[in-house]
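[audit] Reproducing an earlier prediction to check determinism. Same input, same settings, fresh worker. If the tokens differ from the archived copy the diff job will pick it up downstream; this log only records the rerun itself.
[audit] input (247 residues):
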Amino acid sequence: MISSGLQKQKNLHKKTVKIFGPPGTGKTHTLIERVLKKYLTKGIHPKDIAFISFTNKAVNTARDRALATFTQYTTDDFQRFRTLHKYCRRYFEEEVFDPKDCMLDSDNRLSDDNFQYKDWSLGIYDKARNTLQDPRIVYKKESYRKDSLDVFLRKINTYEHYKKDSFIDFTDMIERAIDEVEFPPLQILILDEAQDFTPLQWSVIYKMSDKVKRIYLAGDDDQGIYKWNGADPKYFTTYFPGKKVIL
């Protein structure tokens, strides 16, 4: 088991390029001009390239610039240019439930009538799922606790019961993709804004990488602004192996 793990790390290192750079150094531009167009020019079809980023803006920028140069393609050819959640969404038929669209009232019932941006306990629960930790442990690490542990656990139970057999949420999509989805082979996997992905989300990238010939990661660990939800820049800087390029 250990030797196979080391071999996988060695294989990842051989086929991975990690692009580092602070704001303004052209990370996304590099991904588009030096990486993306390089392979499209060689005749690799966009459907054999996955461009995954944390934001729709970065994905749309990459797709639109490629379309402007390679006019023989259409938007439909770039279906693998998506945020990670949208990339996983295509594999599931259930309706997606956004936790922002409901709140837990004082009786721990879910209500769609009163809008509240993310209940505190559900936020901590989601952080635990994204960091692959027991919710109780994450709860106890919080310096500020809006709910008691009993209320915290009751809200989790209520939330999961509400979703059961009817909805999946954004994190469900990631968890189920890891367990259930057989990702197709790809020529190129590009991950932009890599510093903003959580350990759970990186598990999807690891799974996808098994059937990818070349991987490009780009990011800036100093720009990691989503640590509150479990993002861990170390997966980009340290844990995922690869040749480093500094802009």
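[audit] rerun output stored. Observation attached for the diff report: The longest helix spans residues 27-41.
[audit] end
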